[in-house]
Amino acid sequence: MLDNKKEYGDYQTPLDFASTVVKYIKNNYDFTPDFIIEPSCGIGNFFEASKKYYKSEMFGIEINKNYSDTAKKNNPKAIIYNESIFSYKWDKDMEKFGKTLILGNPPWVSNTELGKFGSKNLPQKTNLKKYKGLEALSGMSNFDISESIILNLLNKFSKRKFILAMLCKKSVAINIFKELYRTSYKSRNIKIINFDSKKIFNISVPACLLIIDCSSDTKVQNEVNIYNFNNSYVDTIGYADNKFFLNTNYSSDLDGKCEFEWRQGIKHDCSKICELELNKKNYMNGLKEKVEIEEDLVYPLIKSSHIKNFKENVFKKYVLVTQKKMKEDTLWIKEKYPKTWNYLEKHKDNFMKRKSSIYKKMPQYSMFGIGDYSYMKYKVAISGFYKDPIFKVIFSEKPVMVDDTCYFLAFENKKDAEIVCDILNSTETIRFLKSISDMTAKRPFTKKVLSRIEFKKFNYEILNYTEKEILDFKIRNGLYINKLF
Ligand SMILES: C[S@@+](CC[C@H](N)C(=O)[O-])C[C@H]1O[C@@H](n2cnc3c(N)ncnc32)[C@H](O)[C@@H]1O
């Protein structure tokens, strides 16, 4: 006799866990779906959970008539088909789906287990990954049917804006990621969120919520970050130099002492007065006043949120910088830049109100995070807040200041900045950084973390520079090791 529950991989998601999943999506993705699709919707607990967070239309498919009737009864407005996902023809409904959240929990059963039951609950195309020859024969084409359901959905929706969030075995999630990498499938981000399947479904298998965000700006993903539901970082898996890695116990050769000094950006605690915006060639301050001061002490300013999309000479903000180095007396401004001095004096109270004790006993209008390095032409900067580290070379005609949420290395030579930036953005460095950062922290990438990158230890052969360029870079920056001595 067939065990129906097993044959149909039937583990209905408890309503409170379905709510946890939907809430997670709602809280972490700025995405308002027109449609929620549940490809094997069971009694419809995901629909029920979604009502609290989204006003989207609902669409489900379910093979079990009792379940689809229950789902329909509880969600009269939902379109629910009672049929197999494997025979359902998507094309007839594809037109109506706009921005879609594909949500759910596909059946937990593999094609091999189904074989034992003599079951036909299978996709028509079993060699979905198009394995050839020996691979196809030697069992590589064994798969969980949830894997084929998810991959089919990803193919169907590949040209649309959607987020897919599905509960599945962790092995299924990893296989899907590998397949997406292999086929250069583009998404914005792929995440795995661990959960305890014993507690939720009474099944002892590593399980997760797999989230594939294809809502915008898609590109081939070579990494997947693994988290818990509270967003605490667990691990990273992915491809480095085309080789798959599981990051557990990862240790890097890069670990050491950085030869360059990482700097934190400028700190003034007086943004209303010091930070300016350009409005038709006029500087405006945070009090909406027109600011007429000499140009010399005004510099372009980059904040954390600007780094990722930095474009040369396009700036939203500017900053008035009162010192060339820390503790420097600011009285010199009076002589040389009288308009600037008058502006500072006019807003003296705002500076006096600065709460932090660091400003006490300092010259008036003092700032922190200022030195020769602030005035160097090229900066390789990162936001301390980013969960995925991205480094950018920041520059303009005038030195660009970065705010104190960012860290940077400063260079006078453009090539040095470019090489350093490529090293920092390399898979090896990013993996290393992620393996030593506290991803649960508000600022995962601190000066302490960044200062562990030892540039001498980097494998320069993987960079796209000539030997001469690398040699010159190393010599200029004291990284050249002459093996003869
Ligand atoms: C793991 S349960 C999840 C149910 C529901 N999505 C939830 O999360 O509560 C899998 C569901 O898939 C249904 N199912 C199994 N094979 C199916 C198929 N070929 N087409 C559509 N639904 C199927 C089962 O009846 C079951 O309701």
From TrEMBL:
Q: Can you name one GO molecular function term for this protein?
A: methyltransferase activity
Which InterPro entries does this chain map to? N4_N6_ade-DNA_methylase, SAM-dependent_MTases_sf
The answer to whether keyword Transmembrane helix applies is no
Gene3D superfamilies named in the record: Vaccinia Virus protein VP39
One GO-annotated biological process of the protein:
methylation
Q: Does the keyword Transferase apply?
A: yes
Q: Which UniProt keywords apply?
A: Methyltransferase, S-adenosyl-L-methionine, Transferase
The name this protein carries in UniProt is SAM-dependent methyltransferase
